[in-house]
Design brief:
264 residues; eight-stranded mixed beta sheet; 4 helices; 19% helix; alpha+beta
């Protein structure tokens, strides 16, 4: 059981809000209002969610479809697998719409001559920040479908889903976005110059969102081992799926290859 550290009232409906350690933004289970807790006064926050289009049966069908399709998967993956857990979790995200401009100076050495290069690298992003501190959710791989955004409504949630409050507030999320975007721009500079002499990134935040996204977390068992698959309940896409090694394990795969080579 998580430790209950604070009990306050929802600023909208007065319902009791229970916070656990580390949580800074709490969503009222009665009216769906999101509040930031700083000091002892809750502050209402604009909040939305992605509409789930995939219920439990839909998620199971999508997992089976994923097991059947695509290269690199064992032929018997669907037949020999058993889904051992399936749970829909609402994860908190911030999305920042930013313009980034990096003024750079550097040297291009790959051509054999040392060419000085200067310029501006301009990009715009919808940058995502997960509002939780732990867990290894693949935030960069996840294509958060902002087009499916609707106002937050507890009545529109997947039944028996789990809900996670945010442990990162919007100020910290913005700081993280600025740092990450700067780091990402520096990565992109490596295509333009081989030696970076100077790089300054200006990040302009144009808009931001706080929202909850429904993700199906599932584990399945295949030949005695457990694997994970994450499904976006809004778009239906697989965010990440563990692919087991060829059936029989890697050792047997090698033995099989050896036999084939000396056959005949
Ligand atoms: Zn409320």
């Amino acid at each position: 059981m998580p430790e209950l550290v604070q009990s306050i009232s929802c600023p909208k409906c007065g319902g009791p809000l229970n916070l656990t350690t580390g949580e800074v933004i709490v969503t009222c289970p009665y009216c769906g209002t999101a509040s930031r807790i700083r000091g002892d006064k809750p502050f209402v926050l604009t909040h939305s969610m992605l509409a789930a289009r995939m219920d439990r049966d839909g998620a199971l069908r999508a997992i089976q479809g994923w097991m059947e399709g695509g290269v690199m998967k064992p032929d018997d993956l669907r037949k020999a697998s058993r889904v051992t857990s399936l749970e829909c979790v609402y994860l908190p995200f911030y999305v920042f719409e930013v313009d980034a401009t990096t003024a750079y100076a550097g040297v291009l050495t790959r051509t054999g001559t040392n060419e000085k290069r200067t310029g501006n690298l301009r990009r715009d992003y919808f940058w995502k920040v997960l509002g939780r501190r732990s867990g290894d959710f693949p935030t960069r791989e996840y294509k958060l479908p902002l087009g499916l955004k609707v106002p937050f409504d507890t009545g529109g949630m997947v039944r028996e889903s789990r809900f996670l409050n945010a442990e990162v507030d919007e100020d910290e999320a913005e700081r993280l976005t600025r740092e990450d975007v700067d780091g990402h721009q520096r990565e992109l500079l490596k295509d333009l110059v081989d030696v970076i002499e100077d790089a300054r990134t200006q990040v302009d935040v144009k808009d931001s969102e706080f929202l909850h996204a429904p993700i199906w977390f599932s584990t399945f068992e295949y030949r005695g081992r457990s694997y994970t698959i994450l499904l976006d309940a809004a778009s239906g896409e697989v965010v990440r799926g563990d692919i087991p090694p060829p059936s029989g394990g890697f050792g047997e795969f090698l033995k099989g290859a050896g036999r084939d080579m000396f056959r005949g």
